[in-house]
Amino acid sequence: LLPNMFQVVFVLGGPGAGKGTQCAKISEAFSYVHLSAGDLLRAARQDPNSTHGELINSFIKEGKIVPVDITIGLLKAAMEQSGKRHFLVDGFPRNLDNLDGWNKHMSDCAHVNFLLFLATTEEVMQDRILARGALAAKAGAIVRADDNVETIKKRFHTYLESTMPIINHFKSLGLCREVDSSPPPDDVFAEVAKHFV
Ligand code: UP5
Ligand code: MG
């Protein structure tokens, strides 16, 4: 374990489980840099210099997982540019391709301390996503291209099929810290924080 290695906590959970909400609280309280893979992909999609815009768009609309080289490139660049060492990697790795890509490209420069798993029911997740979409629409803001019932179904499918096996893999390694994310945000954070002190 080299002293100048990046220190990483992976944060996973289904769509709308509260990853972004909890990462914001963790980064504030424990000075971690919050990197949401989804946010980085959505930003890259808008970047006129990015050649992957169309591809990212179509994958997100279908609730499918973008090829790992694109995501890793964005994560690594953000880590290097931050000048910091402690990171919450939110919404990644979502499948075996993601995990293999991480191990191939990052294992020499980053150490994964543990995986934080935010667990709740599909019903809670769907309600939260639809509420977010409705709120954005009402405010005249942009509604995420994947915050509609049809794509939410596909996101759940991908989560169960591809991401749960990754979470179970970290469980089997003894590296998964699970928190029930059904209660209100501050109550969830009270439990989450215990894993960071
Ligand atoms: N909310 C949050 N916590 C709450 C609580 N405790 N009580 C009540 N309300 C709560 O929360 C969602 C909503 O619920 C918000 O309105 C919030 O206020 C409220 P949020 O914190 O945003 O949850 P989060 O888990 O971050 O939900 P998100 O929708 O971002 O999850 P996804 O995993 O679906 O989205 P992500 O951006 O990670 O990925 C989107 C897509 O990008 C993927 O489907 C995929 O196509 C692509 N992608 C890749 O291909 N590769 C990657 O590595 C990452 C993404
Ligand atoms: Mg999010």
TrEMBL record:
Single GO biological process annotation from the record: nucleoside monophosphate metabolic process
Reaction(s) catalysed by this chain's protein: UMP + ATP = UDP + ADP
Keywords: ATP-binding, Cytoplasm, Kinase, Nucleotide-binding, Nucleus, Pyrimidine biosynthesis, Transferase
Keyword Kinase: yes
GO MF term set: ATP binding; nucleobase-containing compound kinase activity; phosphotransferase activity, phosphate group as acceptor
Keyword Signal: no
Family: Belongs to the adenylate kinase family.
Protein name in the entry: Uncharacterized protein
Organism expressing this protein natively: Chrysophaeum taylorii
